[in-house]
Specification:
Distance between the termini: 38 Å
Number of helices: 3
Mean pLDDT: 93
Shape: globular
Number of strands: 8
Structural class: alpha+beta
Low-confidence stretches: none
Helix content: 10-25%
Largest sheet: 5 strands, mixed
Length: about 160
């Protein structure tokens, strides 16, 4: 779903393990591109429905594998650099507006599965690891840096209360 301003509706997922570390995933096709899982919201879907669908598609986790600890209060937006905009789409997508969720992994690490169940589905990630809380802000591609700073700042009190 692309809104009237050119932003694609999206959900982002920050998955924490029981020690408070965050799941950080390496994208397919780019040896340096790591990020949190995220994905588009389909027509008629709520952000929470999209969260659970994308969580399953991208990292193999079901609703029973996680607990939602927090959600961003507002939509967070970023603009895509011109070279990443798909010029042949109507309407033109100039960026993303996102609802972010902080999730606690209740299952073992073995529940994380990067190969989609649906053989026709496109694989998003090829590798993952656990990282410290603020590590992603230093590593994420520059045009997403402000959004990462925003949602991690918003989630920080919840994270500290849960893991300190």
């Amino acid at each position: 779903m692309i809104d009237e301003n050119g932003f694609r509706a999206n959900v982002g997922m920050v998955v924490c393990n029981q020690q408070g570390q965050l799941l950080w995933a390496k994208r397919v096709g780019n040896s340096t591109a790591w990020q949190f899982p995220q994905g588009g919201i389909k027509q008629g879907e709520t952000p929470k429905q999209a969260l659970y669908r994308e969580l399953k598609e991208e990292v193999g986790l079901s609703p029973d594998d996680v607990t939602v600890l927090a959600q961003t209060n507002d939509w967070l937006t970023y603009h895509l650099p011109k070279q990443f905009q798909r010029k042949n789409t109507t309407p033109l997508c100039i960026g993303q507006k996102q609802q972010w969720f902080l999730l606690l992994l209740e299952s073992d690490d073995s529940a994380i599965e990067l190969i989609p169940e649906d053989p026709k589905a496109e694989r998003e990630f090829i590798e993952w690891c656990w990282v410290d809380y603020w590590y992603p802000v230093k590593q994420i591609i520059s045009f997403k840096k402000d959004v990462y700073q925003q949602f991690l700042s918003e989630f920080e009190a919840t994270h500290i209360a849960r893991f300190s």
